[in-house]
Amino acid sequence: MRRGLLPDLSTLQTFEAAARHGNFSRAAQELNLTQSAVSRQIKELEAQTGQHLFERIRQRVVLSEAGEQALPEVRRLLAEAERLMLHTLAAGPVTQQLRVATLPTFGTRWLVPRLPAFLAANPDIALTLESRDRPFSFDEDPMDLAIHYGKPLWPGAVTEFLCTEIVVPVAGRATAASLSGDIADIARAPLLHVTGRPRLWSQWFDIYATGTGVWRGQRFDQFSMVIAAACADLGVALLPTYLIEPELASGALVQLFDAPMETENAYYIVLPEGRQRRRASVLLRDWLMRQVGPRSQAPRASNPQPAA
Description:
By secondary structure, the protein is of the alpha/beta class. The chain is built from 10 helices and 11 strands. It is 41% helix and 23% strand. The strands form 2 sheets. Strands 3, 4, 5, 6, 7, 8, 9, 10 and 11 form a 9-stranded mixed sheet that branches. Helix 5 links the parallel strand 3 (96-102) and strand 4. Helix 1 (9-21) packs across helix 3, helix 1 (9-21) packs across helix 4 and helix 2 (24-31) packs across helix 3 (35-49).
């Protein structure tokens, strides 16, 4: 890294404020600087980059083509610097930061309710949990650990099996009461689909029943929406058991038959190459493994029966 090429953050703040206001005087007021100080910093940045960043038009300054290209990256750098400081300040007396990427519904409904136990056992860890629904580059998005559904493939990272996924047919109370005890009756019910798993119902019907209308029904782009739709009696859903534990316990959702299906993919813990032995990452990985327990190997049912 060549230090002479690194811009000063205060100069980048000045550039961003001047670009936003289109006026050096208003930028100076916002930053508690003089107008001449703003002009000097802009000239220094232009000299460093070798580009004219602003054009002077009447009483205003407007970004040049080079300035327009630079502005999004400058804002990203300033946002990252602010995020770093906020995380550091929020950490207080902790000794380790841990950034974790997780699938949105998995994080909301399974992981977050269990996190108090992990954080209580590890008070020196400051956790940041962020949603990601697809693989990303750990170099560009420096997470310490990710939870991934799919195949055990992730460039620049090491994957470790966490658990399988078991889905079961469920419905709200009213919908469940309207169905007979015949598993084939599901083929005549309104079906709820998650757009990211378009073949889920057809795969289930291949195992347990026959039905010609398996593609019909409402579609939602998150499992959390499908859960809400099922609870609202919009239809029958195939949902992972670990995502609907509270609804099954309360009776808001009813499992219709003892007809589970193991999905074709699984859940994996993903660690960036070269950083697999960070203490905080190892602690969370081991804790996650203990949370899934024997459920990770739940079998398919071979003779479906109405659920008790």
